[in-house]
Structure formats: structure tokens, C-alpha cells
Amino acid sequence: MDPSTITTPPATSFDPQSLRADFPILLQKAASGEPLAYLDNAASTQRPRQVIDAISDCYQRYYANVHRGIHTLSESSTDRYEQARRSVSVFLNAASSDEVLFAAGTTAAINTVARTWGDQNVGRGDVILLTMMEHHANIVPWHQLAERVGCEVVFAPLNDNGQVDQQQLDALWQQHGSRIKLFAFTAVSNVLGTINPVQQWVRQAQQHGARTLVDAAQTAPHMAIDVQAWQPDFLVFSGHKLCGPTGIGVLYGRRELLESMPPFLGGGAMIQSVTTEGFAPAELPDKFEAGTPPITEAIGLGAAIDYLTDIGLERIHRHEVNLTQHAHALLADVPGVRLIGPQDPADKSGIVSFAIEGVHAHDIAQWMDTRGIAVRAGHHCAMPLHKSLGLSSSTRASFYLYNTMDEVERFVEAVREVRAKFAPQGRRRRRRS
Ligand code: PLP
Asked: Does the 3-47+312-432 domain belong in CATH 3.90.1150.10?
């Protein structure tokens, strides 16, 4: 299913308040004495007891190194580790769990593709096509590839609504044609919240004989993914953005591609045999998992996926759209706030980024913190995007399943306060009144 075609059930069936009880960290009060409003979920989410317990259970009852042991603990660890891989495979609707590789996160997964598939298949004069809304994790590895092999990195520009301009994208395919070896794009922007038409873009790349890499870091936590329907060549995401642990993520790749690629890291576990002359790599997925893997992290990721699947990603997405709708409607009444990204909440995920003229994003975030509201300020690892918007930074509130309408209202009230306190126009108005 394409994220832009998701149908969602009525919001009334969703109760974030009861879900909050699963998240111990959310039960605390902020330094201000107010309940903590955690609106920094695009950076990293919080973990429910179900995930914390799965990790703790592993360490307390059956932890051992995986794959190599004959003893009972090692067999139990291996079973749970491989069960987590199967959970991810079902989560992505992959044809086989051999196509699911564990990596340290989105960044590590993209670097793996650039260093293996990229070095093998991209050369001087070839083009890597990106969009202007990419996170640095989906820019820098391609600049590095360009330094190594002499390819060109080209960016598809955005329109005023924070979406890729499809006509200009078409023109880039016409201009560069078969020189484009890879179209690597985010399915959802981490700054604008824009939901991109994944399936349409994969088909377009296929028509030109190019490969695709989908950065699903901001998609996997919020929307159902179907790699068999979407047909990307690679798709990547991070565990910590979907209630899982840090240090674990996923590199999905189509089997024939993964089989044709050389391994990236060398060492234990990724070999079939080693001699003094060389080595023969193991079969998938071990070939790309050198050394002791992040065992408890993978098990925690499996628990996080089970947790989200039980709640239902479509319901989570619908809830986030409702929160975003409420935030947009309330912010429309606050003068001087520039919302960046799609103006219609139906076109975006639960991300609300904005700038206030004359007020630095850090001042906004700091003020919010005094109100017990955690938001992010800065360039959000998207400097080219901010430059294209004529901004050096923005402030981002990003919602998840445990956020409430009340938190959205507190957030907008804090925006009002910031503007009155820091913005030149706001200050003038206050002095006059
Ligand atoms: N891509 C996108 C769209 C992101 O939002 C992020 C993190 O914010 C990343 C990549 C990098 O993820 P990680 O830091 O988990 O590797």
C-alpha cells in the first residue's frame, strides 16, 4: 500500500491516554511541575513496558551469544533473535526474512548500500537522484560515493507546499535518463512531514532502469509498509523511532541484489570459510551481519513491532493526522507563525515544523522546555532543505501514539507566549496594550 492511499478508521476508537500507561517515562512531571509533553518523536520515541520487559527478560533469563553456541541459552537467544527478524519480515511484507538485515540504524543501512552496491554499480558520470527534503543520512553517503567514484548527486526541488515538484522530477528523468543509477528518497520528510508517493516513484525509476532506496525512518513508525507492493530495491529504518531500542535498524534489500553485492564489514559470523589466502562469504542474511550482532536490541525491536502491530498502524496514523489537524487549526490563529511543509494535514504525517520571524528556533524550544514541552530546534539534519526554504533553522513538534489533544493545545499556547515575549511585532503589541 502506498502511504498516500492509507484509509483510516474513525478517531474515536483511539485512546492515547490509556496507552500512556504503557510508557513509564511519560508518567513523570517536567521540571515546571506540569506533565511532560514529549513532542520530539521524529528524533526518537519513548519505549513501552512491553519493550523494556522484553530486553530485561532477555538479559535476566536467556541471554547468550547467537548462532555459535550449542548450549541451551545460545539456542534460546538465537531463536528469539531470528524470531525478531521474522517479525520485521512480516511487518514489511517481505517475500523472505533473508531479505531483512539488521543494521545499527538507518544511517548505517544507507552507508552499507552506498559502500557495497554503490561502489560496485556506480561510476564516473552516473547520477544519484535525491530529493531536496532528504535527511543528511541520505545525502552524505552519496556525496562520499561521488568522491570515490566520480558520480554526480542531483536533487529534485520542492514546490511551495513542501512537496517534490513532479514536473521538475519528470524533467530530471528526461535530462539524465539512464545515467540515473539510483533514486534514493525519503517516504516521509522528517522536517516537513510530507508523505511521498513511494509506489509511483519506484515505478518511474523502474521505467528508467534505475534502482530505488526508500528511507522509511519516518514511515515505519506510523504507516504500514508493503515492500512487495511498493517494490523498492532497498528500504531502511531505525528501531528507536518506533518504540524500539537504539543501535538497531533494518536494511531490507531484494534478494538478488543482496546476493550480488559484496559484504561490507568483514569478520566473524559473515563467512562460510576462511583460509590464509582468503574467505568465502556466508549466505544471506549472515553475509551482512559481521561480528556479534545487537542481540537484545533486535529482540527489543521485535517487541516494539509486535506492540505497534497490536495497536494498528492505520489507527496510529489517523490519530496523528487528527493531532496535526488540531495543531494547524490552532496555529492559524497565531500571527507571524510560518508553517513549513504541506498546509493540508491529510498530506503529511504527525510533524508540525514552523518558524517565527525574528525569533530563534532555540529560544522557542527553550521556552517550551520551561513549560514542560519537549520539541526540537535546529536544522534537523536537513541543511539543504532549510537553505531551499530560506531558513537556517526551524522548530519541530512531532507526534506519536501517546500524544493528546491537550498536549497540542499546550504546545500552541506556548507558541503564543513565545511570540508575545520574543517576536519584535509581538513585543511592540504588548507594550502598546
Ligand atoms: N532518515 C530520516 C528521514 C530520519 O528522520 C533520520 C533520523 O532522524 C535518519 C534518516 C537517521 O536515522 P538514524 O539516526 O536512526 O540512523
From this structure: yes
